[in-house]
Amino acid sequence: MDAATATFHHLRPRLQGIAYRMLGSVSESEDIVQDVWLRWHDADKASVNNTEAWLVTTTTRIAIDRLRSAKARREQYVGIWLPEPVLTEWPATPEDIEELSNEVSVAFLIVLERLTPEARAAFLLREVFDMDYGEVAQVISKSEAACRQIVHRAKAQLRQERPPLAAPSAAHQKLMRRFADALAQGDFAAMKSMLAEAAVLMGDGGGLVTTFPKPMVGGQRIAQLFFAANLRYKEALRIELAMINGQYAVLRYINGELESAQSYESDGERITGVYVQRNPEKLARLMAAMARRRSQPSA
After folding, report:
1. Label partner for 40 (CA 20 to 30 A): which of 24, 76, 175, 241?
2. Same domain, 77 and 180
3. Are 83 and 45 contacting, i.e. CB atoms less than 8 angstroms apart?
4. Where are the alpha helices (DSSP H) in 127-266?
5. How many domains does the chain divide into?
6. How many Cβ atoms sit within 10 Å of the Cβ of residue 247?
7. CA-based torsion, 104, 106, 108, 110: positive or negative
8. What is the pLDDT of residues 69-104, one digit of tens each?
């Protein structure tokens, strides 16, 4: 493997992370990184002063263009569009969980959808990937002053859309373990007690399976929905915890088949948001990632 190829593969996880956070889609982010590889393969390496900067810039600019067209497609999406769930490693410490969930959680990606493609790129590069404003300016072809203003406005908008949670990730983790047990046991009272009165459930079926076309509001209604599934499927229903998008999430199986991947947002005491991914195409890629992980030899 030559040096240029080795450098690309070393940086590939970073490029994939940028593309995924920009698009909220595993398949689209993989396409972007493949496109970057092809461009890098054909590039005049001698004219590139900083390989990492070149790769990050190329990835981000392609992602901005793809996001513009994706936004138009998502306006025609059947029902609610939710980010594609991505399987993540179990972090070693609570601090790792805190950092990862703040950067890639489903709720966070949903809020990022409110930003323009350029604002999303500038915010992510600065706040998540810790680039200085001069570097951000070069990537999105704006002045440094303009980038500071773009990021400032993006942060203000995100704070308004999703105030920071006061509870640490450890409290969310404990709550999710209890809630998963309640789901598995069909304990309606326990489910209801852990859902905030104004909790919101959003589901993505992609027009391929039935789900709610609008958000469902109300903890009791959401608990009734989950309880109804227990009554209907009984022993055919199985609940598992998994680490999805940096947070504890629920995988629900029916007759051995993955029916949904459920991500949750909470204040540490009550669940405030439920994001149910049922789109079979998105679940298929999640299952493929799980199969690959199971096939890897343990250390």
Report:
1. 24
2. no
3. no
4. 133-140, 144-161, 169-185, 188-194, 219-233
5. 2
6. 25
7. positive
8. 998 888 889 999 999 999 987 655 555 555 565 678
